[in-house]
Amino acid sequence: MGDRESDRRLVASVRAGDHESVRAALDEGADPDVPDPGTGLPVLCTAVAAFDAQVAEALMDGGADPDRGLPDGSTPLLRALDGGSPAVFQSVLGNDPRLRLPERERARLLARARNRYETGAVEELRRRTGARGPVVAERVTDEGHDWVDQYTLGGRVVRAGHGAVLTWLESRLRVLPSVDELIDRAVAVADEDHVDWWGACYALLERHRREAWPEAPAHSDHPDPVHRRFVADYLRTRGITACDSPFAERESELLTAWAARETDGAVLAKVLEALAEYEHPRMEATGLRHAAHPDPRVRLRAATVLDASEQARSPGARAALLALLGDPDARVRLEACRAGSRDDTLLAPAAEELVRLAEGPYEDLRGGVAETLASSRDRTPAVADALAALLADGDQFVRLEAAYGLALRDDPRTGDAIGQVGPLYGDGFEHDHRVNALWDWTRRENRPWPLAPGAETA
User: Domain locations in the chain?
Assistant: First the structure.
């Protein structure tokens, strides 16, 4: 049991959603199962109800009991399952539930997860509340990553991520559904940014057994383009995470042949994006085949493939990229700029187009334009001036890229540029190569560091 003061700090930190303060209170001896005075339930249930995966993970790391029986017969883990947030459920399930939970409880969890998924979040919410009024729906991100629908009715809130919850539970309990079943779950919501899509993709990625190979790629010929798009996305992710897989050569061959026959533009674009993560002797030829495709999504990924090819770039490939620098679609032009920036012959025209993109009305592309400008080997005044102009952008990451690009060029405006970035709040900046470069510049010039939280902007 923790002391009362640290317990109070823990409760306050959980309610505030401050996971760092939660960890600090636990380090000071707070009881990880201390009840929240507002509900009488352990604070882990407070985190679960708030869909706060980081706080739930901190409590679990501090020794909270996810299997603790509650007055209504549930447990924090069952509440996390019912809540439908994959991120929260992953945090509360713990590291190895196969060792912690008896077989009967594992079977109970699996049956409940499957029931919640098959029933549907809205119907389950109506069953639990008895309410028949309108359901309030909103789309939310689950712990800042993929999206999920959240529903509110009768004072209860659930998220419709039970497909991913079931998939994660099966994975942790080493229950392996068929590949077909996993793909069916993924494509039920035909969006690769949905939690169920990523949950199925992750489960397939975890399978390094030989029997997983013939089933997933078989969907490359599925009549539904959504199924084919999922397989392409799965292979793209495998190319990133398992490039040394014994199946890599076979996968790249499949993607190359698939790109030659695919007729759906969205699927073909994803196939080309996947191919760019592999090596194949026909990669350049594949990119050239689709560089003039009528669908801009395909032309964009044709540029990606041409850029990814490790062969010496042919005159035909340079000509195709030069043509794509003048493409009607701004996204295609930006992708061609990325490829051209790494080619001595195309460096100057790519830089000229980047400057035009930076000056144009392409707010949604500004981050990519700034990043490509900053890293460009072009050292002409026009590029430096474009970077300086981007310091007025409302997006801090665009300003950070612009200042970084000026620092790389040792531009005399660098000092003012760093000040215009603004103080950096949040996690992750301690390992950011751009921040490290700006820090090195300020130390070398013996200047104060203006990006610390709370610092005044220049």
Answer: 1-65
